[in-house]
Design goal:
With 176 residues, the protein is of the alpha/beta class. It has a single domain, classed as Divalent-metal-dependent TIM barrel enzymes (TIM Barrel), CATH 3.20.20.150. The strands form 3 sheets. Strands 1-4-5-6-9 form a 5-stranded parallel beta sheet. The chain has a two-stranded antiparallel sheet with strand order 2-3. Helix 2 runs parallel beside helix 3. It is globular. It starts with 9 loop residues before the first strand and ends with a helix.
């Protein structure tokens, strides 16, 4: 199917905000981590309101990895994933640029992968949003995982030329 499976739910993508921090003489203090109970109370309200708002409609909210989940964010995401209205977006280029540090978390919840942002990337120097084939990612393995989970995939590049190159790479290297 050229534009995805219409039986899949509409997906809203969200990023976690790391929150503010206070710089002390000897360290930085993440306020969400310091006030974790309050942080989680707000996530409880957020999840409940989203579930009420979505109701029986065919809609899901997917939490995307960006620059590395903090431990307190992982706990909040795990809580959100306790709801059938939430899933995960794996941005494979962002993942590569941060040395794949979110991969263990994403794989622990791989059954909740519903959306992928597909672009190539490198670790050193950290770069993402590259055309497919211009980086270091095992693209076939990531696309295979997306296919196994019937996840939607979005090609995410910054230029028209990179998009054209990525489409050509898919035509030559991937059979869906």
């Amino acid at each position: 199917m050229q534009y995805g499976d219409p039986r899949q739910p509409l997906t809203l993508n969200m990023h976690m905000h790391h929150g503010v921090y206070i710089t002390l003489p000897e360290r930085k203090v993440q306020m969400y981590e310091r006030d974790f109970e309050t942080y989680m109370q707000f996530f409880s309200v957020f999840r409940t309101r989203c579930e009420e708002w979505i109701g029986g409609s065919d809609l899901m909210i997917a939490v995307e990895n960006t620059d590395g989940f903090r431990d307190y964010e992982k706990k909040a995401i795990a809580y959100l994933l306790g709801s059938p209205k939430f899933g995960l977006t794996w941005d494979i280029g962002h993942s590569k640029a941060i040395h794949e540090k979110d991969v263990p978390f994403l794989m622990a919840y791989q059954e909740r992968l519903i959306h992928f942002h597909i672009h190539d990337g490198t670790e050193m120097p950290p770069r993402n949003h590259l055309a497919l084939g211009d980086g270091e990612i095992d693209l076939r393995a990531r696309l295979q995982l997306a296919e196994e989970h019937n996840a939607r995939c979005v090609l995410e590049t910054k230029t028209i030329e990179a998009l054209k190159q990525s489409v050509q790479w898919l035509r030559e290297n991937w059979e869906a």
